[in-house]
Batch of 2 targets.
Target 1
Amino acid sequence: MTQVLSPRKTQISREPPDFRDSPARLLSAYAEPSLWLTGGALVIALAMMFGLLALILVEGTRTFWPLRVVRWELPERVVMGEITRSEWFRPDSQSIQNMPPELRKAFQESLEKHNGWVLRYLVRTGNYELTNEHFRWVSDPEIRLGKTTWPEWALVLERVAWGRFYGLPVAFLIDGKPQATTAPEIWDTFLRWHPEVRRRFRTIRRLETRVLGDINHDLETARLRLRSVEMQEGKQSPRYRRLEEEVAQAEKELHARYESVRQEIEQLRAENARYTLRLKTADGQEKDIALADIVRAYPANQLDLAGRCRVYLSRVWEFLTDEPREANTEGGIFPAIFGTAFLTLLMTMAVVPLGVLAALYLREYAKRGVLVSGLRIAINNLAGVPSIVFGVFGLGFFCYLVGGSIDSVFFRARLPNPTFGTGGILWASLTLALLTLPVVIVATEEALAAVPRSVREGSYACGATRWQTLRRVVLPQAFPGILTGTILAMARGAGEVAPLMLTGAVKLAPELPIDHRFPYVHLQRSFMHLGFHIYDLGFQSPNSEAAKPMVFSTTLVLILLILALNLWAFALRARLRRASHVLHI
Amino acid sequence: MTRDGFTKMSYLRAFVAMNLDRKCGVLRKKKESKQSQSTTDSFIERMSSMDPHSASSSAESTSTPGSPPGKVRQSSAQTNGSRDGSPLSFEESLLHGASRLAAIARGEPFESEIHPQVLAEPAVLEIEHFSLWYGKKQTLFDICMNIPRGKVTAIIGPSGCGKSTLIRCVNRMNDLIDDVRTEGDIRLDGVSVFHPAVDVTQIRKRAGMVFQKPNPFPMSIFENVVYRLRIQGIRNRQYLQEQCERCLRAAALWDEVKDHLNQNALQLSGGQQQRLCIARALAGSPEVLLLDEPCSALDPIATNKIEDLIRELAGEYTVVIVTHNMQQAARVSDYTALLYLGRLIEYGPTPNIFSAPRLPETEAYVTGRFG
């Protein structure tokens, strides 16, 4: 008995315990080091994220603030414009040697004082058509030799073309006759006539894009109809003949309408052409600028804070609601905002049902085994595939294969011009849906797995079938988790660029994917996208200095858009969570 | 040595033997280790030499492995008592029982002790030669019992003895678990629940079930109660409201929740949630109510309420309650069955089981000396 009951022999070490532990082990015996380690990691991560966000926020909001206009009379030139930024640089000795003696001396003083560094300013001088540059560098020694003034009536003009113009008002002309010659008078006259001229300008714009566009569209449709009949029945068929006459008749009418609209436009143009503003640049050149070309003008050094805010807000409003001009460096980004939101919406509509159903099968119906585990691994791996690969797939499969097939069946009359057989918002959104599918599937699976087994059993024990249990008990409980997955997918999709470059994003889309023409939603159209817009501005722009602030502003808008989408989804989730128990009554 | 001392000693011995046996059984299965087997054997021998009856009883039980199990052994007192007619002393019978438990642990067949009163009752549920395997592990061994109609039947037994598994077979909840195999039959009102033509959802509609942990659905109280009716496609608002009130009244919850039936059920307290689950199980008037340790997650007051409720439901419904609280079984049930390691040990009227059990194992269990 004692044999059995005696406790199992345990190994008791006879050597005295070794208290001289290694420093690393001693360190791990205290809480502080691990606290510092984890806390430090968090701080570094947060600092990087908030640093980036703060940079974007500051730079993005600063873009539209109207600055004062400086005029520098330098030894060799006169410069007038807004100081964009400053930096320290190291001039090379050769260029200093070539300078006139006075300037050389000033440079050498500055070099000695600052250990070989010289301060210089980047000035936005505009007047591209006269000087062939938008920006000029002005160095500190030059300024000290020259004369600095803040001209009282320096005007900043934002124009439809050629970028900004900086100048002093000389005269306001109507029909070539000066109406005002002193600066305040000129400004008053400008303010009186400008809105009217701009209104006419917008009318012209609308007539050109809307009315002429519609006429062109109708002409195109008529021709397409004729072409499809030709393809079906041949040129000799009576139906073709009849239609040909009809189309000819319609074309005649449309051409007549086109002409009348054209005339109307010409009249408006002629009316607008009467008003011009004569300005003098810093170096004394005079330039006449048609009032219709001026988007916005303001006397930069006259503005008080409220005036500056007005200019700022008006620029922000233009940025958010207008179309881009000047190779996207000016104007607005509305088409890109619209394209991004619409694309994300389409993507969500495609990915959520598909992903949720797939996850439901995987989690609820499939028998657990090697195959399902393998599938799960494959899905997780899919999330790690570079997005450009999805772009290539989207281009090859959706655009060329699916789109090409659609074209050859439904849009033969338009060939060889592709309709669906090229990049478009539908194919881009489907490509993104594919890209974000793993996110949705994984999140949905997690959400389903989090629904306790006891609740399912309760439902089965009530005699519910599997589908009834899923639909009435499991899905409502998993819904917030599914929405979280959707939010993640949306955020990922909205910020993606690489696949879009291949599947339909363009730097300038003439038309939005939704417009007034039947069938109103044009999924085959290419579109503008904020992410692609950022890339285009930052790396493809001919005027990179002017584009840079726009990059920040566009990024800010993109982040805000994603934030808005997320907040909306969060609110929806909270509301559903609250209401989930009354959903079924 | 005092009597108490002796009891303790002999019990200790029996217990050690049992546990050692169980462990060794596993070992033997795994390794076929001869050494351990011989240790066990020698140990058992030693035990048997101390108690002549255990050897004989185990010999007897091994000699009749194929005895028809449906037939209930009526002459159990005889087996239980000594074969030569002289009654066993208390200590001897305990030791005898303990080694029989050891025999069960070894996997030897065991014939249930079923009191004749149970057989006299009309049965709503007949469990016949029912065995169940989870994968390769057998969990239930050849169980035969009838559940009387309109009575409360408690199933007690130590943890892991297969109580829950047994009642989960009645409404085939074990179908949800992969790799379950059954033998034998369970008949609800004479119809086999395993018959291929039987729709499992129909079976579950006829047997309401309440689980260990309250599991209300994340919907309103009203929707929870009428869930069974909803999934049958009943839409008549008035009927649903009537049924909701009836079930909540039956579950003694109506007065507490009648003013906020649209409130989320998850906001109720634990006891209220469990009563709600009972109300939910009552909707659609099931023939059998299966309660799987309904009070194990509740405080004493809530437990009291549920127990009162079970007493009230008896008569109208047939209740099968699994519990490991013996007082509870004694309080609420008309009949009690003791399960041990997947075998039915003794089954009879509750007063008999608790105050005059026929088997010493039962007495040992209900007095809290093993399990």
Target 2
Amino acid sequence: MTEVKLEEIWFRYPNTAMFSLRGVSATFRSGELTVVRGPNGAGKTTLLKVASLIYRPSAGRVLVDGGDYWSLDEGRRLRKRREVVYVHERPVLIRGKVLDNVVYGLRLRGVSEGRAAETCREIMEELQLWELRNVDVRKLSAGQAQIVAVARALVLEPRLLYLDEPLAHLDEERRLLLLRVLEKARGRGTGVVVASHQDLGSLSVDRVVVLSEGRVVRDLYLR
Amino acid sequence: MVDETVATVLRSIYVSGAATLLAMVWSLPCSLLVATRGRSKVVEAVVESLVGVPTVLIGLLLYLLLSSSGPIYRVLGVRLLYTPQAMVLGQAVLVTPLLISTTYRLLRSSARSLWELAMSLGASRVQAALLVLRESVPGIVASGIMGFSRAIGELGIALMLGGNIRGYTRVVATAIAMDVAAGEFEEAVVLGGVLVLVVVLVAVCAKLLTRVYGD
């Protein structure tokens, strides 16, 4: 069980006067499916980046399994960070082939190239990416790039997976496919946190967090 | 005569190439640091204004530092003035603001998202920095070419720190200046053409290598 608890988080981007998050408190747990909603500029992306341990808050505490993450030494932080993954709204792909991208996280963990490719195969087949494994990422459509970014996250089997507008570039077929895969990941115990404006259809959501102007205005458990 | 010209051209490439590589050693981490730690308008303004510092001023300061009455010789006992090494050091200092400025601009647009990507996928700080640099290779090479072109055509530092010693510190830029002073305009023009040719060839080779790397 992994739990990321945000306590009274304030966050301001460098060289800006306005706070993007203002005293936000929220908890994300493995095995739960949470949807973060709110208008543009409400702070959804910033919240996800703070909760996925990328951004250090200006004030407040980020507790991972009860321990203050930002007071840990670099080695312990790295170990904790490897349990959570964030997927950007606009997929950031590295130069090379689709497979190079999907194996990247595993390679960072010291997994050999051959073994990493083997590990990726199942999830890539599930997301209909295996046939594209040798395609240069520059030739992918926006939707395909989005799926590659999600696959790259899923192969790491994170305890918590944060997805920022994951359905934004997807057609109906890929949308349903992704929702099915996310449901399965939750079934395996991964906590899934989705920031989205869109209807998540068949996804059985446990909880909805609504943000407005950097504050949590509603935190509702549905199940 | 031809042998001497070839040696002068090769020396120019060596001195300016080494200076560019040396400057990259400290310019790349600086650019990465500024780009990933948020935009700093003050750093940006200072670096960009330093691009235009007169080369004779840099030459003069380094001359005072490296001369036999300067601190380098007094403390370390190393005599660097009028050596190719002094020219390398001088040109490296000269191109540093240019390299930082151009690399920073390049990294500013992509470093943050790449850094975030690496961190979110569980990279250590070193692994994240390597990813940012690896993804930025084509731009860094372009920046290096600019630095090299600036260094190889530079006269003030080469003259003040190298002294234009025949067969030792004479480079194309100082040879052109000497030919003009001696009224040998034809030779100066030929050397000028060679200088341009070298810069273009180095740029084309670097671009081709980058394309091979990218594919």
